[in-house]
Amino acid sequence: xxxxxxxxxxxxxxxxxxxxxxxxxxxxxxxxxxxxxxxxxxxxxxxxxxxxxxxxxxxxxxxxxxxxxxxxxxxxxxxxxxxxxxxxxxxxxxxxxxxxxxxxxxxxxxxxxxxxxxxxxxxxxxxxxxxxxxxxxxxxxxxxxxxxxxxxxxxxxxxxxxxxxxxxxxxxxxxxxxxxxxxxxxxxxxxxxxxxxxxxxxxxxxxxxxxxxxxxxxxxxxxxxxxxxxxxxxxxxxxxxxxxxxxxxxxxxxxxxxxxxxxxxxxxxxxxxxxxxxxxxxxxxxxxxxxxxxxxxxxxxxxxxxxxxxxxxxxxxxxxxxxxxxxxxxxxxxxxxxxxx
Length: 341
What we know:
It contains twelve helices and twelve strands. The chain is α/β, with parallel strands linked by helices. The longest helix is centred in the C-terminal third of the chain and has 18 residues.
């Protein structure tokens, strides 16, 4: 077994005190001269130094582990968010454990309990079931949380920070885009939980403002199969429809599969739009119009905010920051055919 390189050896190679090496390794790089930090980092790379996380935890009462919580890792929206969190956290000397809660309350509570027992220094991610009240005990335990939310937030007295995308406004804008093209028979397909409520509300607001009758179908899940089955039912019902908005891209792709199977052209017969701008949305034929939420930026910003909490105090009142979205127009939408107007 190879011998473990020590901080003392790194300090000798860099020509600095061991305490300076420790300071840099524990997130204090900005507290030393840039050239000193660079010499330490070069010595670490040359010697192959690996920090002893167990010893650090005993000394600092910190695990140097962050939990990244998501409700469904099989949903292509989340992996790039998780990777962004990992990159930022690892650069600061933290390891990241990714936890898929399946959107279940019991699993989310297990995360909270583990953090109370000291397993995680902080938590970043998406909670579908637990609200600020249930997360409040973590503030008392000194464990900061950064939530990624789907609706507008305002901060509060608890040390819980929120990054949010106004999904209601985004859905309203996407529906407005369809209305501006001349569509009046627009159906929305959603699924229980998650962002359904706010995205649905945005659609309903836009339809009401245009004086159009809404039509909402609920799929079983936010999946390709859920979207396909809901679209099958819609087409077979004979209800007039010139455009379909699905509450995420996975369902929208399922909708497209159903329409093609029924011999309908996209967008010639029916326009289709989704939500999230996952990688596959640009690869399907025709390419899918959608709402981009820049999940890599979301993940990086959330991790940076959490690290700032860990470095500068975990008990300050929480804040809220709105993040951008963008409508991405692709080949799946067009003006409705004359016969459908």
